[in-house]
Amino acid sequence: MAGETRQADQKTEGQVKDLRSFLTGYRAAYPEDVLDIHIPIKAEYECTAIGKHFEDLGKYPLVLFHRVITTSGQISQFPLMINVLGDRRKLAHAIGSTFEDVTIDWRRRVWEAKHQPVVVSRSEAPVKENVLVGERVNLLDLPAMRIHEMDPGPYVTAGMLTTFDPDKWIDNCAIQRGFICGPREIRCYVNVHTHNYLNYAAYGERGKEMKVAYWIGHHPAVIMGSHSGLGYPESHYATASAVAGQSLRLVPSETLGDDFLVPADAEFVIEGIMVPGKRALEGPFGEYPRYYGPQRMGELFDVTAISYRNAAIWDSFLVGINNNYGGAQEEGNIYAAVKRAVPQVQRVVVPVSGSGRFHAYVQIKKTHEGQPREAIMAALSASTMVKHVIVVDEDIDVFDDRWVLWAVATRSQWDRDLVVIPNCFGAILDPTTGERGLGTKGGIDATKPAPPKRFPLRINVPKDVLERVTLEEYVGPEALSKVPNSRDMKP
């Protein structure tokens, strides 16, 4: 961040965007999608069960658990929140976009980068309202969840792990899990292909320890910006400002030096150090592909301080339950890459059916025959996670797997429309790639021939008839509410 952060010389214009301002605004806009649970509930498995039950219904409400029993058996003083990034509607609300366009608008804000972070004093930073240092820290008091049966204990799942590179002192932020295995010890999984690991290795080459912090709980727009894919080294704090549409307020850390800046309006900040080469067992852990990842040696985060707001809210991702956010994040990166290769791209969707990572549906307005393959290659190069790309026409609803698969069924022949590329680097957590993360990627051209060649017309009902004849009128709301979902009729 050296040279990139300016000192705040006046109040931030308008309301500061933080987790609380988002919660207030979203609750007002969608009161039925925010639930408060005051019955005591365990952070071990029981909160997960609530999230899982909602997922089975295809619903992802923002849930606040107000009386959480920690894994050490005490009622936490902090409420626990899940699903703040649970679906596209919440992401769209966070940046003033729409369900369909949220990922395009997300990426556009990254490109425009109209705002830069500012530094405020400790007295102006809500996250400094409570500060615990050294042996006063007890992470086991936090309502961190033990999500799945084989997880070894409670995890930081929505924490933004932040480091600075040793040469230019530019911040890097990434959501990387951390196993809380003691009052002041977190074992992190820092993937070797991430920028935080590049920083970790750089400190190791110098024989120095690395300063590190988790910050937890902020406005979803800030999370989206901080978690955007960037080059190395590039400031994620600057991108957070760009996506949020206002300057991210930063404040000096407590134990890592005044030049180690952390978000002033986060709910929690956990500070500490990592000594390169100092590792301990971490995992197994139920990850986003909906499989357990193996136990491995994780980077050891020795905690030196924790600061938090009054009535701080602990934010958690239900990893392996719902992947709307992860997919939306990939969509922006892929859309940007495909847009350069095929300007006629309409939308990109990375669906939950591919664990929010492994499938990408690319919708284009096809004008010539080479575009689908160009889109496939661009999409695969834009994301190490994506392994299957399906390109469809603009008349296909890319938000509905049924119609994408219908396009594959009726508009492709695999001897001419299939692209297969072996020995590609992919997601290490994909259980088919192995330890090295190598696998086969590919794509399917499921588009109609380009004009002027003709193709059979889709069947349809006149639009005015569909709008005029409604189930509510002809069946009735009460009877309609009793019609079972197809999966409820399984024998």
Shape: globular
* Distance between the amino and carboxyl termini: 60 Å
Helix content: 25-40%
Q: Uncertain spans, ≥5 residues at pLDDT below 50?
A: 1-13
For the largest beta-sheet, the strand count, sense and barrel status come to: 9 strands, antiparallel
Work out the radius of gyration: 23 Å
Strand content: 25-35%
Descriptive overview:
With 491 residues, this protein is of the alpha/beta class. It is 26% helix and 26% strand. It has helices at residues 19-29, 46-56, 88-95, 102-112, 195-206, 220-226, 236-244, 324-341, 371-382, 401-411, 414-417, 463-468, 471-474, 477-482, and strands spanning 6-7, 34-37, 41-42, 62-65, 68-69, 80-82, 118-119, 130-133, 155-156, 160-164, 171-175, 178-182, 185-188, 210-216, 249-252, 261-263, 268-282, 285-286, 292-293, 296-308, 314-316, 345-349, 359-364, 388-393, 418-425, 438-445. Strands 8, 9, 10, 11, 12, 13, 14, 17 and 20 form a nine-stranded antiparallel β-sheet that branches. Strands 22-23-24-26-25 form a five-stranded mixed β-sheet, sandwiched between helices. Helix 9 links the parallel strand 23 (359-364) and strand 24. Helix 4 packs across helix 7 (236-244) and helix 6 (220-226) runs antiparallel to helix 7 (236-244). The longest helix has 18 residues, at 324-341. The chain starts with 5 loop residues before the first strand and ends in a 9-residue tail after the last helix. 47% of the residues are buried.
